[in-house]
Amino acid sequence: MAVHLSFSNHLRADGLSVAYPDRRVFADLGFAVAPGDRLGLIGENGVGKSTLLRLLAADNGPDASAAGPLARADVSGRITRPRRTGLLTQELPFAPDERVDLVLEAALAPVRAIERELDAAAEALGAGADADAAAAEHRYAAALDAAERAEVWTAEARRDELLDGLGVAGLGRGRRIDELSGGQRSRFALAALLLSAPDALLLDEPTNHLDDTAADFLEGRLRAFAGPVVFASHDRAFLDRAATGLLDLDPGRQGALAASAGDGGSGTLGGTVFGGGFSEFLDVKAEERARWQRQYDDEQEELRRLRSSIGGTARNVSHGRAATDNDKFLKYFKGENVERSIARRVRNAEQRLATLEREQLRKPPAPLAFAGIPSGSHALEESAGLLVQLDDVEVPGRLRLERLQLEPLSRLLVTGANGAGKSTLLGVLAGSIAADRGAVQRRRGLRVQLLEQDVRFADPAATPRATYERVLGERRAEQVPLSGLGLLAPRDLERPVGALSVGQQRRLALALVLARPPHVFLLDEPTNHLSLALATELEEALGGYPGAVVIASHDRWLRRRWSGERLELHQGSAAPVAVAG
């Protein structure tokens, strides 16, 4: 089966289904997004948000590339969308040696093509014969409409506005992509997509790597965008402010809705549309699940009562047994009416039991919950004193820091605009980046680990369980089993790592660090790619982490809740700071 694609000014999915040989992603999914509306996709990592966005963007079959992520999938359904639909993926499409100016010019290619078509249509209109006048006029009107929507006459001005609004105007257009930070590359990708002026936008985690100013700028652009927008995001503040509706791909919520409707709570893998804001949605979803759990518990109690009652009563009125003295006594007073009445109650109870067993609610699936920081870290002999100290450290063009001190229980949040040096600082602390000047002192025997923004596994064909055992060793993997951390669902432990979503891969990377907690735990944008539930649980667990924690983050929600020390970097430099334990 395949997806039937047609074109319109709105975006619509009907009966959309995706299944791989080892699992079904979603089935019979349907929704519609009108021009000017913005639909936010939400759900746990791995429920199909990125898959859905790629499918909506595909022009030729399930994936535009034969080797694409959907190439092995069985897909079906119908998609209607604008012909020029732009997609922002979490994996950036640029080659490391590409120059920024060429990337931006390539983004303008569709706009240039529309401008050329307008010129050609105008020439044909002026030179056409009377017999061709109607067709020429229609062609020119269509070209003019496309040119107005693509804003072809202000392309250069829009380019400068986008680069400035996303905070990358001053980086130099002659630089190579691999000379930029991860956040800068993401911003250029977003700028390039918006510069191409598509008629519909599909965005996968668009606020990853954006600071407050850039996130506000993007929100304003989406609010002013005339076409339909579908975006997946873990950013609760952005969802609250930018989305006009939500599509929950969590099958657990569909089961809860089915339970409320009284149809057995079977649910589907189709998704549920919600018309309110994200904060309201969380409250409603929690109430639905609590109601489902109460109904399930009540039914299970009734099932136990019926089974017990039927078993006990049936023994008392069992046919074919010899009459007891008590039976003779009852029959003497009431005859056989008592036995018929009891038998009727047994039959009614048996019928009720059969119906309830057939139509009972399924058990609410246990939500994936982070189990916290495991025990077993190798404590340093000294319980006090400095773990790491940086003095007059400089990485030219990327970081300059007078002093930074970390003690055994330090909690430090590093903030600053993209390119200010946050990831560079973490790299210096981890030892993966060497400082050109200054001193970096680490306590003897210190173990430092970094959760990077972009996760890459050497063997994408290996399963998470095999990867976990290979990195940690069999003994530690047995002491702290991967399944016990609550970071990956049991069904995903034997799938190839390369088949997991970006969020699921980052959960595995997090598990590899937490299974043997280091003395200094460095996290670069830890909430990127993670579901809101897991991000919240991780933040709470880090408060009790048995070592030093350093987090670099743009996350507005995390920053509002942070109670530890802070260090704000300003374009490669920061004021001196002493961090208390």
From TrEMBL:
Keywords of the record: ATP-binding, Coiled coil, Nucleotide-binding, Repeat
InterPro entries in the record: AAA+_ATPase, ABC_transporter-like_ATP-bd, ABC_transporter-like_CS, ABCF, P-loop_NTPase
Pfam families recorded: ABC_tran
GO molecular function per UniProt: ATP binding
Coiled-coil portions: 282-309
SUPFAM superfamilies linked: P-loop containing nucleoside triphosphate hydrolases
Protein name: ATP-binding cassette domain-containing protein
